[in-house]
Amino acid sequence: MTKIELTVDGAAVSDDVEPRMLLVQYLREKLGKTGTVIGCDTSNCGACTVHLDGSSVKSCNVLAVQANGRTVTTIEGLADTAEGELHPVQEAFRECHGLQCGFCTPGMIMQAVDLLGENPNPTEEEVRLGMEGNLCRCTGYHNIVRSVLHAAGGAQS
Amino acid sequence: MTATQERPAGEIGKDRRRKEDQRLITGRTRWTDNITLPGMLHLAMVRSPFAHATITSIDVEAAKASPNVVAVLSGKDFGEELGVCINAWPITPDQKTPGHSPMPADRVAFAGEIVAVVVARSAAEARDAAELVDVEYDEQPAVVGIKKALEDSVLAHPDLGTNKSALWVFDSGDAGTGGDVEAAIEEARTNGIVIEREYRQQRLIPAFMEPRSVVVDPTGEQITMWSATQIPHILRFALAATTGVPESKIRVVAPDVGGGFGGKLQTTPEEWIAWAVARRLSKPVKYTETRSESLMAAHHGRDQVQTLTLAADKDGKVTGFKVHLDADLGAYVAIVGGGVPVLGAFMFNAIYKFPSYRFECQTVLTNTTFTDAYRGAGRPEATYGVERMMDELAAEVGVDPLEIRERNWITHEEFPFTTVAGLEYDSGNYEAATAKAKASFGYDELRAEQKERRDRGDRVQLGIGVSTFTEMCGLAPSRVLGSLDYGAGGWEHATVRMTPLGKVEVVTGASAHGQGHETAFSQIVADRLGVPFEDVEVLHGDTQVAPKGLDTYGSRSLVVGGEALVRAVDKVIEKAKVLAAHLLEANADDLDYANGTFTVRGTDQGKAIQELATATFAGHDYPEGMELSLDADATYDPVNFNYPHGTHLCAMEVDTETGAVKMRKYTCCDDIGNIINPLIVAGQVHGGLVQGIAQALWEEAVHDEAGTLVSGSFVDYLLPTAADTISFDVVHTDEPSVCTTNTLGTKGVGEAGTIASTPAVVNAVVDAVRHLGVSDIQMPCTPERVWRAIHANDGDAPTPEAAMPHFDESEGAGQ
To answer: pLDDT tens for residues B234-266?
Structure first.
């Protein structure tokens, strides 16, 4: 067991973890952050995407010990939802029907936030390439792309 | 409380944002794998690496000694309480149906079949210990592939004596719905056109994003199962029927379910094993599959060889269509596995007036993952077959593919129309859908561009693909299902309850997993009952809350479940009318009901439904003989299927040197009757399109000769990404031909995109290179297959350009 200390969604947390424990397992099993989900075992689907020190990572591809001393933001910490707030990207996904079953959605939103952070005014092509690492089986991506473009438009205005 | 409520008029047709979304976009979700119970144990499955083998021995000692392992159990540790996996639809009386134990003790019939289960205090410890279970197998020859199975030289289940499970036949001559197809083919051989083709429907994997997960809690009076399922009610029925626990002692919950597409229309070995282990140990257990397990052992879909013979006169008027399917069931006949290809029987004739028709479906058993419903279930396969054939006919006659369809389709004046397959299509307007799709697509312009590119001999050629589809949905009239020997009905149930403070609880037996029922059903009730959209709460997916239902598949929730809802609402209004008349001291016949309020005709007196709900709760003042409740149930059994249709047009660019294909434009004009929520409909269409397009271009489940799934991860099974797809042009007919057999005039939309799009895409790819001598490309149309098709007639000789070395070999690759 290895002791780790990190900040998750604004809260300092500390745990003893097995060295092999994945960050996504740590979030779900130790912290109860079940908003972040596991969709595959080969880092293809992106459902587990979170931000590590502000950049998107697939949390199945990071060991919990690698997050030691760092800051993690999950879908649950993206906005102060208890106060009724939504991040503009969350709002855009609802507005544009960018989700159906919603399983890929946390990862999609976290990836979209990162994408728009790097490129606040993307073209459709840039959105499609930027979201390529996240799989969705329901939407055909049409409305996910619209959602990201909508959020970008909102950020400009 | 006021007598009238502020409410925007006309919820139906409004693009309401979904009620479901708030929790889904904030991570406040209840996926089955999120559920943790005190004392819960975790399961890991030990699966056979062999496609066909007898189990010689299972040594569990090392696994049992592994840290925090509670039990290691195999098939021989259980008796009848393990139950069996059921086939609910034996398609013929003499169907060969191998016994399907959730965890066989003696023999495995596909790679991935479960032979033992490890129970431990954590999922990781269970999985570690599963590695230590030592199973000795005696490998048996495996049969893989439909044609190999038909030979019966190697048997998937030796004790059955054959791989052939059932042969199901429909013949229009015998049924009296049309003529003799053999005579039509003979006639066409001398005086017309006969087109004979063999098409391959490759095996697909539903690949819902949420891996399947099941939690069983045996503590308490009812045993509770949470499962990532589309069918909580059928699951409860099957658990009771096969494990000896009374239905009344079983509660099944489908919490948030992350997609299904037919893939979660199953009663699974994993559910049955979790059930048995929880009962054995009297502790809650959880099993969540890995993606690799999901791809390997959750059911697959499609997988047919289609042998098709189309007869026509010289003008391209079809005179007969003969269909022979060989369909791969995999290792077992799954819950509706045999029935899925049979659904195609009613759809190969599509929108056309074929005078004669014969359909045969031979199901076969192989040592591969069992197959069952995948979005469209039998209808995409049929639509692919007929729409590919209509393009071949157009090419033979030398006319535009739309022209050949128009010569054969049912015109809008001819509805209702009884088809050669025996269904009565109640409504449709294929001309209108086609005209609108053509205009939106820019059909004539793209045809002109195609000609220019051909004339110039461009390297990148343009192809235009057509698919004018219809489908039968809204499964299903119970009597029809009975006549097909299906093991259940097709009705749906709804309850509408008025709460004391005037809110509305709607209980539906449909079980959503991404479809947006909470939103669309709220819109229906808000309109019909005249209450605010926000005041309607839709409850579903838990047999304790919604005890009756037949769940969600086959584009049935709105058209069957929605109608049950309408009828329950109408009963509530009828009940409330009695109370309103009493309280208003008026004759019930003098009351009007609108916008949620009863008014006495000719006066300003009124009572809102919410006031009546409160009055019913209080019970202080109500008429003699009135039962003190406004709540109502309704069960609706549909009288017919309904028949969405549409025209889909696809433009594909094909690089004739590399075989690479690129989608240029996709337009669909679907006639789905009246639309409750256009936003949700668009989402269903987009998602359906991409699943159908993915079959055409990317996806294929491949077992090697030994029966090992080689496309067993998302690295190898190619789901499309945002970068692979385009934005779609989705339109609807201006005046939809509404369904005439339900109150709201709605038709199903969940599967339409998937059913229609696959042939549109392949037709487009073939159309792009038809002038190079290509008439078919097997799906998925990978660059290699396209390239090989282009060069099939020149001995696979590469083009001079492609033959050039990519680098100067004398100088190495570093150019």
So the answer is: 999 999 999 999 999 999 999 999 999 999 999
| C-alpha dihedral sign at B107, B234, B35, B249 | negative
Q: Are A65 and A41 in contact (CB under 8 A)?
A: no
Chain B, 271 to 310: residues with Cβ < 8 Å from chain A are 290-292
Nearest-CA distance B170 → chain A (Å): 35
3-state secondary structure string across B347-406? CCCCCECCCEEEEEEEEEECCCCCECCCCCCCHHHHHHHHHHHHHHHHHHHCCCHHHHHH
Say how many residues make up chain B.
815
Q: Which of B29, B256, B686 sits opposite A140 (nearest CB)?
A: B686
| Dist CA B606 CA B596 (whole Å) | 10
Q: Is A45 helix (H, G, I), strand (E, B) or coil?
A: coil
Name the pTM for this structure: 0.95
Show residues of chain B in contact with A39, CB under 8 Å: 209-211, 291
The SS3 assignment for B789 reads: helix
Q: B689 at the A interface (CB within 8 A)?
A: yes
What the block records as the tokens of B232 is 């909580």
H/E element, A116:
helix A105-118
Q: Which residue of B has its CA nearest to A109?
A: B25
**Is residue B790 within 8 Å of residue B660, measured between CB atoms?**
no
DSSP 8-state class, residue B642: B
A131 touching B (Cβ < 8 Å) = yes
Q: Which residue of B has its CA nearest to A89?
A: B25
Which among A141, A146, A148, A149 is the top mutation candidate for probing chain B, defined by the most B β-carbons within 10 Å of its own β-carbon? A141
Do residues B430 and B350 make contact, with C-beta atoms less than 8 angstroms apart?
no
Residue B527: is its pLDDT beyond 70?
yes
Nearest to B693 by CA among B453, B375, B297: B375
From the list A25, A44, A140, the residue facing B687 with the nearest CB is A140
Write out pLDDT tens, residues B754-796.
999 999 999 999 999 999 999 999 999 999 999 999 998 775 5
From the list A39, A105, A128, the residue facing B24 with the nearest CB is: A105
3-state per-residue secondary structure call for B4-54: CCCCCCCCCCCCCCCCCHHHHHCCCCCEHHHCCCCCCEEEEEEECCCCCEE
Task: Tell me which H or E stretch contains B115.
Answer: strand B114-120
Overall average pLDDT of the B530-545 stretch: 97
Write down the pLDDT at residue A154: 65
- List CB contacts of B659: < 8 A, sequence separation 6 or more: B782, B783, B784, B785, B786, B787, B788, B790
DSSP string spanning A50-108? EEETTEEEETTSSBGGGGTTSEEE-GGGSS-GGGT---HHHHHHHHTT--SS-SSHHHH
Put simply, the chain A residues between 11 and 30 with a CB less than 8 A from any chain B CB are 18, 20-21, 25, 28
B309 Cβ neighbours under 8 A, 6+ residues apart: B185, B194, B195, B196, B320, B321, B322
Residue A83 pLDDT grade (very low, low, confident, very high; cuts 50, 70, 90): confident
Q: State the helix-helix crossing angle for B430-441 and B443-456, rounded to 10 degrees.
A: 60
How near does any CA of chain A get to the CA of B210, in Å?
6
CB contact under 8 A, A97 and B689: no
Beta bridge mates, B285: B41, B216
Distance CA B116, CA B277 (A): 11
Task: Please name the residue of chain A whose CA is at the shortest distance from the CA of residue B754.
Answer: A140
Bridge partners for B655 per DSSP? B460
Question: B714–A145: do the CB atoms touch at under 8 Å?
Answer: no
Taking CA atoms, B238 is separated from B79, B243, B272, B480, in Å, by 17, 8, 10, 22
Task: Tell me if A101 and B210 make a contact (CB, 8 A cut-off).
Answer: yes
Residue B139 forms beta bridges with which residues? B53
Name which of A32, A81, A131 is nearest B722 (Cβ-Cβ).
A131
Confirm or reject contact between B716 and chain A (CB < 8 A). no
